[in-house]
UniProtKB/TrEMBL annotation:
<dbReference type="GO" id="GO:0032259">
    <property type="term" value="P:methylation"/>
</dbReference>
<dbReference type="Pfam" id="PF03141">
    <property type="entry name" value="Methyltransf_29"/>
</dbReference>
<keyword id="KW-0812">Transmembrane</keyword>
<keyword id="KW-0325">Glycoprotein</keyword>
<keyword id="KW-0808">Transferase</keyword>
<comment type="similarity">
    <text>Belongs to the methyltransferase superfamily.</text>
</comment>
<protein>
    <recommendedName>
        <fullName>Methyltransferase</fullName>
        <ecNumber>2.1.1.-</ecNumber>
    </recommendedName>
</protein>
<dbReference type="GO" id="GO:0005737">
    <property type="term" value="C:cytoplasm"/>
</dbReference>
<dbReference type="InterPro" id="IPR004159">
    <property type="entry name" value="Put_SAM_MeTrfase"/>
</dbReference>
<keyword id="KW-1133">Transmembrane helix</keyword>
<feature type="transmembrane region" description="Helical">
    <location>
        <begin position="20"/>
        <end position="44"/>
    </location>
</feature>
<keyword id="KW-0472">Membrane</keyword>
<dbReference type="GO" id="GO:0012505">
    <property type="term" value="C:endomembrane system"/>
</dbReference>
<keyword id="KW-0489">Methyltransferase</keyword>
<dbReference type="InterPro" id="IPR029063">
    <property type="entry name" value="SAM-dependent_MTases_sf"/>
</dbReference>
<keyword id="KW-0735">Signal-anchor</keyword>
<dbReference type="GO" id="GO:0016020">
    <property type="term" value="C:membrane"/>
</dbReference>
Length: 578
């Protein structure tokens, strides 16, 4: 019997007036009780929004066990209702502000502190992501297999079932992967990222990406292994990277239809590829049965872009992009032409794909072969930095500043950089990548995030041989929960403030709660800002069960800035320390 049906009016006597009076009172009580139920539901299901004041001093509740892999912006419950055209539904689609639940994402049952690097390249704990679909479907191709408490990664892939190392040796005959000329790569549709993982020993950092798909958790497996990876789909928008940034682009059976939609996807690859860089495609449509038409179109379009075909070795084709500026305009069957002068090729945050070729003024200066080899390029300001107002001086000052700061973190604040405890690092406000450069000799990799509303300095970061993405921290980040060991936020309040008006665009609570989602249990957060902002950050940190310590900034800096060092506690459902 429902709540309202159990509150039928009771008849007392035969008076019509008396009967109406009790019915009215019962109705009032019913409305009151329903209001109480709704109020309690709102209280115990907190939503994001103006949450800092609401939850100050209160513990944030855990999410349900079904949300262990919560991806707010790649949620199939939302994306399934969207258009399939150009895979629009598989791109980022974030909840509106206030829609996402304000709760702590729990780890799965049996979760353990991750296997340390470099052992994690070859094996991870099964229970940290107990999803066997890839092992079942791709085990015969050497992707991964389960053995006891572990998932093992032999290093294979669909186009290199005998292992990534043998495949890399094959590519080295045509591409200088071991010379120091190439440092940054983009691996499209990467699987579990073994290709990128085995390139690391060649001092090459490949940023591997794949969408959330039927295999479940490809990128989560890659990050658990300690390999640079990112959740991403090439659909209707530019990828969130600057122009002319990657020394090579690799696709191993990524199944991207490069010449479809008037060549939009190959045009996007061209935008991202550094002059003199290499495009490597293994698998369809390269000499693939029943894809002769697509293979012919790919060759013709690459030729229209003046790419030099280096080799076709079986089902692998390799092209080299010209060092000079684009050879367009020219006569070509695809109608390819240069973009107008008002196109900014570095603009790439929620920016629609263009059907024209971006012009870059510094093509020759930042080409492969012109830019310094690794590791010299790490410490030298590139032509892109020189092109910025006072760029060289800012670059050098930023580099020196972060050498001192990182030394202070290690020596005085107990941050475990340089140890097996920290592998995956994120810099939420990277500027020129000074933090990443300062830890380049440590066994870590750094995801450098340049806020989309700040100066677009990410190209300089790539010129240094580092990697990163554009992002707006008023939205969730495109990664799985529990994927980073250390997250650094320099000037966290600037991440939520409008750079022109200074007004707050979103809540500090939301940003720190997102940090908690992507931070591994027992991981470290380092937050720098004014004393007032740090006090607020401490309140939020304590409400999400972090342990906190506040320190003064470096003595020689003379700054009043404070530094919050926080540790995410390891808890399990039901919410207890573990």
């Amino acid at each position: 019997m429902g709540l309202l049906s159990s509150l039928r009016p009771h008849r007392r006597g035969s008076s019509g007036g008396a009967q109406w009076q009790w019915s009215f009172l019962d109705a009032v009580w019913a409305v009151f009780l329903v209001a109480v139920v709704v109020f309690l539901a709102l209280v115990f299901t907190p939503r994001r929004g103006d949450t800092l004041a609401a939850l100050a001093g209160a513990a944030v509740p855990p999410c349900s066990a079904s949300e262990v892999d919560l991806l707010p912006c790649e949620d199939p419950r939302r994306s399934s209702r969207l258009s399939r055209e150009m895979n629009y539904y598989r791109e980022r689609h974030c909840p509106a502000r206030g829609e996402a639940p304000a709760c702590l994402v729990p780890p799965p049952p049996g979760y353990r502190v991750h296997v340390p690097w470099p052992e994690s390249l070859h094996k991870i704990w099964h229970d940290n992501m107990p999803y066997g679909k890839i092992a079942e479907r791709k085990g015969h191709q050497g992707w991964m297999k389960q053995e006891g408490s572990y998932f093992l990664f032999p290093g294979g892939g669909t186009m290199f079932p005998d292992g990534a190392e043998q495949y890399i040796e094959k590519l080295t005959k045509y591409v200088p992967l071991k010379s120091g000329l190439l440092r940054t790569g983009l691996d499209m549709g990467c699987g579990v990222a073994s290709f990128g993982g085995f390139l690391l020993k060649e001092n090459i950092t490949a940023l591997s990406f794949a969408p959330r798909d039927s295999h479940k958790s490809q990128i989560q497996f890659a990050l658990e292994r300690g390999i640079p990876a990112f959740l991403l789909m090439l659909g209707t928008r530019r990828l969130p990277f600057p122009a002319q940034s990657f020394d090579f682009v690799h696709c191993s059976r990524c199944l991207i239809p490069f010449t479809a939609y008037n060549g939009s996807y190959l045009i996007e690859v061209d935008r991202l590829l550094r002059p003199g860089g290499y495009l490597i495609i293994s698998g369809p449509p390269v000499q693939w049965k029943k894809q002769e038409k697509e293979w012919g179109e790919l060759q013709a379009m690459a030729e229209s872009l003046c790419y030099k075909l280096i080799t076709v070795d079986g089902n692998t084709a390799i092209w080299k992009k010209p060092n000079q500026a684009s050879c367009l305009p020219n006569q070509n069957e695809f109608g390819l032409d240069l973009c107008s002068t008002d196109d900014d090729p570095d603009e790439a945050w929620y920016f629609k794909l263009k059907k024209c070729i971006s012009k870059v003024s510094l093509s020759k200066e930042i080409a492969v072969g012109s830019i310094d080899k690794w590791p010299n390029r790490l410490s030298k300001p590139s032509a892109r930095a020189s092109f910025m107002d006072n760029g060289v001086n800012l670059f050098e000052a930023d580099t020196q500043k972060w050498v001192k700061r990182v030394s202070y973190y290690k020596r005085s604040l107990g941050v475990k950089l340089g140890t097996a405890l920290i592998r995956n690092v994120m810099d939420m406000n990277a500027f020129f990548g000074g933090l990443a450069a300062a830890v380049a000799s440590d066994p870590v990799w750094v995801m450098n995030v340049v806020p989309a509303k700040k100066p677009l300095t990410l190209g300089v970061i790539y010129d240094r041989g580092l990697i990163g993405v554009y992002h707006d921290w008023c939205e969730p980040f495109s990664t799985y929960p529990r994927t980073y060991d250390l997250i650094h936020a320099d000037g966290i309040n600037s991440l939520i403030s409008d750079p022109k008006s200074g007004k707050t665009r979103c809540d500090l609570f939301d940003v720190i709660l997102e940090m908690d989602r992507i931070l591994r249990p027992e991981g470290t957060a380092v937050i720098r800002d004014s004393p007032d902002v740090i006090n607020k950050a401490v309140q939020v940190a304590q409400s999400i069960r972090w342990t906190t310590q506040v320190h003064d900034s470096e003595p020689e800096s003379g700054s009043a800035e404070k530094i919050l060092i926080a540790t995410k506690t390891f808890w399990k459902l039901p919410l207890t320390s573990g």
